[in-house]
Amino acid sequence: QVQLLESGGGLVQAGASLRLSCSASGRTFSGYPVTWYRRAPGKEREFVAVSTKSDQTYYPNSVKGRFTISRDDSQETVYLEMTSLNPEDTAMYYCHMDHYWGPGTQVPVSS
């Protein structure tokens, strides 16, 4: 059974950096695109970053230049490095691969 698990969330102050991790069991990330999403309270789910199976990366303008997705297929982990966090980044962050989702990790950013 494939399972994804996010970690690394937690309360930070505006301007801080944080690194989220997504680990996989039952399957490696190799050969699959992996995507980070987030859902802020009262808002729709938002695309945050994707690493394609050829390791190309794409970001929306809201996080471009501040967030970086990377993958370590040998360790079955995908990372989301977040810098210059602001309160608008407050959300539950999820990773997604194929049709699998992790339970999410909460990132509250205080002003």
How would you describe what is shown here?
There is one protein chain. The protein is mainly beta. Helix content is 0%, strand content 50%. It is built from no helices and 12 strands. The strands form 3 sheets. Strands 4, 5, 6, 9, 10 and 11 form a 6-stranded antiparallel beta sheet that branches. The protein has a 4-stranded antiparallel beta sheet with strand order 1-3-8-7, with no helix packed on it. A two-stranded parallel ribbon has the order 2-12. Strand 9 (91-97) and strand 10 form a beta hairpin. The protein is globular and about 40 Å long. The mean pLDDT is 95.
Features:
111 residues, mainly beta, six-stranded antiparallel beta sheet, four-stranded antiparallel beta sheet, 12 strands, 50% strand, globular
In short:
This protein is mainly beta and 111 residues long.
Given the C-alpha coordinates, what overall shape results?
globular
- Estimated share of beta-strand residues: over 45%
Instruction: Outline the biggest β-sheet.
Output: 6 strands, antiparallel
How far the N terminus sits from the C terminus, by CA atoms, comes to 40 Å
Number of helices: 0
Low-confidence regions: none
Helix percentage range: under 10%
Find the count of extended strands (DSSP E, 2+ residues). 12
Mean pLDDT value: 95
Task: Tell me the layout of helices and strands.
Blueprint: E1 3-7, E2 12-13, E3 18-25, E4 34-39, E5 45-51, E6 57-58, E7 67-72, E8 77-82, E9 91-97, E10 100-101, E11 105-107, E12 109-110
Parallel strand pairs: 2-12
Antiparallel strand pairs: 1-3, 3-8, 4-5, 4-9, 5-6, 7-8, 9-10, 9-11
